[in-house]
Amino acid sequence: MSELRRYLQFIARCPSIEELWEAHCQKMGTYGFDRLIYGFTRYRTSTSLGDPEDFVILTNHSTEYTDEFLGGGLYYHAPMVLWALKNDGACSWTVLHEMAQERAMTPAEERVIDFNRRMDVTAGYTVSFKSISARSKGAIALTAKIGMEQDEVDALWQEHGKDIQLMNEIAHLKILSLPYSTPSRNLTRRQREALEWVGDGKTMQDIALLMGLTAATVEKHLRLARESLSVETTAQAVLKAAFANQMFVLDA
User: Fold this and answer.
1) Strand order of the sheet with strand 89-92?
2) Which residues share a beta bridge with 36?
3) What CATH number labels 183-243?
4) What residues contact residue 184 under an 8 Å CB cut-off, 6+ apart?
5) pLDDT, position 182
6) Which pLDDT belongs to residue 230?
7) Gap between the Cα atoms of 228 and 185, Å rounded
8) Could you tell me which of 72, 65, 67, 69 has the C-alpha nearest to residue 80?
9) Hey, where are the domains in the chain?
């Protein structure tokens, strides 16, 4: 129990997603889960998971795998992703074997399973995190190391599953509190500062005075921030930057 407590204390105090993810991958690896994919969206609708550029995606899978599964859009038809969107909690990948035996998969789902089989992604567990918003959803896929059978994973989960699920839930909550951006969504210090003043309710003239700039330069920073975040209005930019925890952050 003390080991679990030390790990959770470490996660709770992590200053960055990069440090947290590296430690989490190492910890899950001690249980035999050596390949992970974590995903989170705040922009889910009834027909879409939102713009992939806005996803929080963390993984230690090979680029060969992620290029096809994520970049090629296979994730959208992955049976365990579909399960995670409809459920909370942990689920054994045994259900995939049952679906295959019952021929209960669509052709698109079968393509995902065939791809995973070729990439030795065949045994594991998926943890779907409870969300308070209908538009947000997060989950993590824990892939067992090559050579492990699903019955071995299920036996391991029977013994350690509650601790593993707890560690993933705490890691998820911590991830949501840390700044996250992709290269195409990253804000400069000036863009972030201008958005922060807008969030504080300041006028364009106020912001120009506070930042020591002209109003035209402030508007340029706000325009570039809107373009970087792919939104049309400054209010939307403030909201999206806040969701990504890029507002009011301490510079290293």
Assistant:
1) 56-59, 33-41, 137-144, 124-129, 89-92
2) 142
3) 1.10.10.10
4) 53, 228
5) 65
6) 85
7) 5
8) 69
9) 2-175, 183-243
Tokens of 135: 């538009």
Element (H, E) at 29: helix 17-29
Let me know if the fold of 2-175 is the same as that of 183-243: no
Give phi and psi for 47, each to the nearest 5: -120, 0
Report whether 167 contacts 197 (CB < 8 A): no
| Tokens read off for 40 | 């989170």
pLDDT on residue 252: 43
| Chain centroid to CA 202 | 32
Which residues, 6+ apart, have CB-to-CB distance to 93 below 8 Å?
80, 122, 123, 124, 125, 126, 150, 153
What b/e sequence results for 7-40 when a residue is b if at least 16 CB atoms lie within 10 Å of its CB, and e otherwise?
A: bbeebeebeebeebbeebbebbeebbbbbbbbbb
- Give me the pLDDT at residue 245, please: 76
Looking at the domain covering 2-175, what would its CATH class be? alpha beta
CB-based contact 91:126 (threshold 8 Å): yes
Residue 152 identity: E
N-terminal to C-terminal alpha carbon distance within the chain: 34
Q: Are 79 and 109 in contact (CB under 8 A)?
A: yes
Whole-model pTM over 0.85: no
Mean pLDDT by 10 residues, the chain (252 residues): 88 92 97 97 83 86 96 93 94 89 86 96 97 90 97 97 97 90 76 91 92 93 90 88 74 50
Q: Can you tell me the distance from the alpha carbon of 101 to that of 97, in angstroms, rounded to the nearest whole number?
A: 6
